[in-house]
């Protein structure tokens, strides 16, 4: 089923008294922004649609995102006695990315997926995936009635867009992306504050860890790849949440003459999360998908069991194959 605008799924919403919204594990700005934007949009129109309850489920995230309206309504724990008429998945390319909310997905009468990842597996009853969009927030904006987007919703959508475009620096940024950003600014949002507080500012500890990751990075394949790793022991020593590591991969990517940046961090003993960024030649989404992950041509990730050396040994041939 193809969705052209939000009105096309009005029948899904009208049929649903109870709705669950969830994003992906380790939520980023686009995930948080899209979930809160949709929550606010549905709540503002709940009487018209006959909706009685809307719940949002996300894993804990950085306190910098508390600037967004609706984040105080997000549930970080799960009551599995709850069941929903409709489950809406945002910014999640596959079911394993939904995390603990999968139980609500499985028990829901109907499922909708709204996403922009080219690796999306079309796992819902209704799938709206726009792979050339900059972000799920951009996709969501185009599904909404623009007249019903107020300042609060605009804040959430704008934050999602700036995070997934690296403040409009990534190649996924299009003229349409910029037009949407302008329309959101016209809603009266304090866009400079949103950029500064959710994207630019870092705590002293975050800066220390960033410096350490940059200092301990290494160049491989004749300087075409830059790799950095941080162990769980180091993460625990600094008292970090995994959200504190956001942005490190993008700093690694700026190394001149490199084609691929790799950031590996240990989530448990011999369990690692791998983030990949490409500067153009390598399609990292194909590599991530090979290892059970997903993402975009220039930004992707996956998880892997094994030592950090195991991760690198398995990863390098895949990158090298695209460089030759």
By CATH, the topology of the largest domain is: inorganic pyrophosphatase (n-terminal core)
**Rounded Rg:** 19 Å
Poorly predicted runs of 5 or more residues: none
Describe the main β-sheet briefly. Answer: 6 strands, parallel
For the secondary structure, the number of strands is 12
Instruction: Figure out the total of helices.
Output: 13
- Return the structural class: alpha/beta
N-to-C SSE string, H for helix and E for strand: HEHHEEEHEEHHHHHEEHHEEHEEH
What sort of overall outline do the alpha carbons produce when their principal axes are compared? globular
- What percentage of amino acids are in beta strands? 15-25%
Distance between the termini: 40 Å
Q: What's the level 1 CATH class of the largest domain? A: Alpha Beta
CATH superfamily of the largest domain: inorganic pyrophosphatase (n-terminal core)
Gross CATH architecture of the largest domain:
Alpha-Beta Complex
Read across the widest sheet, the strand sequence of neighbours is: 3-2-1-4-5-6
Percentage of residues in helical conformation: 25-40%
In round numbers, the mean pLDDT is: 93
Number of spatially distinct domains: 2
Description:
The protein has helices at about 10-15, 30-45, 45-50, 100-105, 135-145, 150-165, 175-185, 190-200, 205-215, 230-240, 250-255, 285-290, 310-324; strands spanning about 20, 55, 75, 85-90, 110-115, 125-130, 220, 225-230, 260-270, 270-280, 295, 300-305. The protein is of the alpha/beta class. The protein folds into two domains: about 5-200, inorganic pyrophosphatase (n-terminal core) (Alpha-Beta Complex); about 205-324, Diaminopimelate Epimerase, Chain A, domain 1. The strands form two sheets. A six-stranded parallel sheet has the order 3-2-1-4-5-6, with helices on one face. The protein has a six-stranded mixed sheet with strand order 7-8-9-10-12-11. Strand 4 (about 85-90), helix 4 (about 100-105) and strand 5 (about 110-115) form a beta-alpha-beta unit. The protein is globular. One of its GO terms (molecular function) is nucleic acid binding.
